[in-house]
Amino acid sequence: MDVSISAKNVNLYYGDHHVLKDVSFDMNSKMVTALIGPSGCGKSSFLRCLNRMNDFIRGARVEADIRMRGKDIYARDTDVISLRRDVGMVFQKPNPFPMSIYDNVAYGPRLHGIRDKDKLDEIVETSIKGAALWDEVKDKLQASGLGLSGGQQQRLCIARAIATRPDVVLMDEPTSALDPLATAKIEELIRQLKESFTVVIVTHNMQQAARISDYTAFFLLGDLVEYGVTAEMFTNPKDKRTEDYITGRFG
Amino acid sequence: MSFVLWGSAAFLVLLVLAILLYILANGWESLSWEFLTQPPRDQMTKGGISTPLVGTIQLVIVSISFALPVGVATGLFFAEYSSGGIFTNGLRLAIRCLAGVPSVVFGLFGLSLFVVLMKFGSCLLSAGLTLACLALPLIVTASEQAFLAVPKEYRDGSYALGATKWQTIYKVVLPAAMPTIVTGAILSIGRVAGETAPIIFTGAAFFTPGFATSLFDEVMALPYHILVLATAGTHITETRPIQYGTVLVLLVLVLGVSFVGVYLRNRFRKTSRV
């Protein structure tokens, strides 16, 4: 099993608040790893460590050994810009830019120097197809991204994230703002995405984790309580707290 | 209660209409193509207002050329780069104070700094720069508000794709802030075009034979022309129709600029709809 991201001894502080306590586990390549746990347990904070988006939070301090492609992403000489190119992120609330659909998807590639129109056309088409959105927007690529429905906007954001051909796609509760139909479409999309990308998804919805993930990590108050193959964890949890959470004794 | 509110609104509308109609009625007869394209002659009792009209346009262009980049950059600094320390707060206080300074004080300041100290002399450049100081607080405030109004989600999305702070600003934040910044610029044009006191000492002339052809020439200007016709000179009553005509042209100019600004802002809104 190829490991895409290896996290060891991840400690995160917001000021004095110890948000993540010595978290260690691996995320496997071309698999979907779900991070579950009650509100405030640190799962979104952990996700943001993987593409160093926590750097933007004042007072945040990370002490960790997180390796992608064998390199420590918190090393002093890390090129954070290319890290974020290789690790895509989709946010909870769809956030397309106030630009055309085409420009939204082309944004990432253009940032990293791709200017050739034919190449951009190809990347845009591939990415939008990869996000299962092509049939719905192929005739209106110049229309504003903001004119799409919520579910379509989120798929546009996914297309935008995969346009830079990342290795990993991080998703922070991508369907919690969407209706069930749109949610189902995105879950189906995630099943397809893992053929090309490693997916790490934070979800509040346990059933969703059970539906779409291969591995699950259960967080509680900053600790990693349990990590394992999803099917096993949901039928045979090793830790009592995991069992209590999964069976709904607390949430 | 609603009667009082309706009454106040109606009073305001009537007041504006009254002013506009009065000016229109008295100035209409002076309007013609010649009025706009001929310079004043015969001690301004005849002829047109081409020189003050062009002068006002030149003053607006010079002042906005300085005020817009400096104002937007300052607004950007406040919104994106400052950390709330004593320098930032001091600067913000200074801008607020600047907004309240009477325009004649700007005129004296411009006289001391641009005309005398920097030796530009009384000219288009000095007057334009003085007007720029007047416009700055408006543009800084509008820009800062525009940048702060851009949702955090856009910035997050941009950073997550591997953009630097500067790329995020000029590719996402600045375009999204454009409508509000344009509105601020338009408002300041309206203010600048109608000001008299800042330009009297710094570059406006009673009469120039032709248009200003360099930044160091003096200019005529519409608001100053109105003042001159109405108070100085020897033919105040004879020039009355021309005075009204000039006022009408100035009003149309300012309103026209505002309408263009609103149109542009709405067009920006269509593609940058938040």
Q: Strand arrangement, largest sheet of chain B?
A: 1-2
Give the CATH architecture of chain B: Orthogonal Bundle
Q: What percentage of residues of chain A falls in helices of 4 or more residues? A: 25-40%
Percent of residues in β-strands of chain A: 25-35%
CATH superfamily of the domain at 28-40 and 79-217 and 226-246 in chain A: P-loop containing nucleotide triphosphate hydrolases
| Count of domains of chain B | 1
Biggest interface between chains: A-B, 28 and 22 residues
User: How many beta-strand elements of chain A?
Assistant: 10
- What structural category arises from helix and sheet content of chain B? mainly alpha
Order of helices and strands of chain A: EEEHEEHEHHHHEHEHEEHH
* Weakly predicted, low-confidence segments of chain B: none
Largest sheet of chain A: 6 strands, mixed
Q: How many β-strand stretches of chain B?
A: 2
Number of helices of chain A: 10
> Largest sheet of chain B at a glance?
2 strands, antiparallel
**Mean residue pLDDT of chain B:** 87
- The SS-based structural class of chain A is alpha/beta
The CATH superfamily of chain B turns out to be MetI-like
Overall body shape of chain B: globular
Number of helices of chain B: 11
